[in-house]
Amino acid sequence: YSMGPWATTYKLSVLSSSDFHTSQRMSRLARYSFWALQLRKLHSSHIATLSFPSSFSTSASQSTATRPSPPPIHVGLTEYAGRGVFASRRISAGELIHTAQPIVSHPSLSSVHTVCYFCLRKLPSSARSLEASQTVSFCSTQCEDQSKKFYDVEKKADWSRFNEYCRLQGLKYPLLVKRLACQVISGVVSSDVLDILQPEIPSSDRISKMKKEVALLNNTFEGSDIGSEQMAFLTEEWYAGVLARIRINAFRIELAIGSYEDLLSLAAASVEAEAAVGNAVYVLPSLYNHDCDPNVNIVWIENVDAKVKALRDIEEGEELRICYIDASMDYKARQTILYEGFGFHCNCLRCASKD
Ligand SMILES: C[S@@+](CC[C@H](N)C(=O)[O-])C[C@H]1O[C@@H](n2cnc3c(N)ncnc32)[C@H](O)[C@@H]1O
User: Fold this and answer.
1) From the centroid of its chain, how far is CA 184?
2) Ligand 1 centre and the CA of 288: distance in Å?
3) Where in the chain is the domain with CATH 2.170.270.10?
4) Ligand 1 centroid to 189 CA: how many Å?
5) pLDDT in tens, 44-99
6) Which of 94, 165, 333, 348 is most buried (most C-beta within 10 Å)?
């Protein structure tokens, strides 16, 4: 399961919380102070992944007078689900709260020749690479430049077996791990970049499948001229940790319909293939908790940049929550998917009334 761009039309939601014993609170606080430290570490290296609403730019040459104000949110501890995102002022319905760029993203295998290999923007027909070819395309020189380092690493190896394995098994997350590994080898990110995110607890079945994937990834790199010291991080333990975080935190990217042509291809895609153009992992969007009647949603308009928008008026101090799944499903289906996919029993107001 991955979090998706689920539209919602449900009514009012307020923060639901339960009383926890002080001792439980203390142990949680200790656990999350580790994450708070990680967040601070990440703040400097990943500030570029968070951008602000309006037409402000964040260039270093800007004077403080013209600097954008930070987004109207803060990360804090909830009483029921670890960290969460809270409104630091009143937010109006429809407001763009912030945008975020991914730490790692990858097109779905069915979209790899029709979208930009970096930002997942749909390519005009003339710019698409041939399906039979091993090449990929970029929508702009900017995306090509931003991909250069990891793509130079990726090009050193032959990915046909790895991709075929993912295709046959219907796997999408190993593609994100492959891209992350290329980013680490090229020095663009550090191997612990996802450590800040909450991991899932893997089942034994998952662990044995994962061993196969990591062996395939290692064999693919070993066939290239990448030095073993550059690949030293790529252990079973690293792969398991990264996959456990991707499984809980990846978003499935469906671009908003921009044209009549998009509408037609989406209609065809829903019959022939997956409608999602790819998957991506972000820092801040991954800190939003779930509600079956959310007050914010995340949309992707033209590319992988996530836009977090208020679905209704939100009061200062209220927790901002998104819906991880299709909110139109019934109570039982939602509970099952949330438990199997994300490991929790939802007790939002809507679920409490079994709606
Ligand atoms: C994407 S993370 C959200 C941020 C997370 N709270 C953290 O501290 O990193 C998803 C995880 O948060 C927890 N979570 C999110 N929404 C929840 C809810 N409504 N009830 C209980 N746990 C929830 C679950 O453990 C879930 O797997």
Assistant:
1) 18
2) 7
3) 22-100+282-352
4) 25
5) 444 444 454 443 333 444 455 677 789 999 999 999 999 999 999 999 999 999 99
6) 348
Per-residue pLDDT of 302-348, as tens digits, reads: 999 999 999 999 999 999 999 999 999 999 999 999 999 999 999 99
Candidate from 196, 197, 198 with most ligand 1 atoms within 8 A of CB, to mutate: 198
Among the listed residues 236, 129, 219, 105, the one whose alpha carbon sits nearest the alpha carbon of residue 165: 219
Rounded Cα distance, 143 and 327, in Å:
34
Residues with CB under 6 A from ligand 1: 80-84, 198, 248-249, 286-287, 289-290, 342-344, 346, 348
Which ligand 1 atom minimizes the distance to the CA of 197? 9
Asked which of 4-13, 273-282, 292-301, 308-317 is least confident by mean pLDDT, the reply is 4-13
84 Cα to the center of ligand 1, angstroms: 8
Q: What is the pTM of this model?
A: 0.83
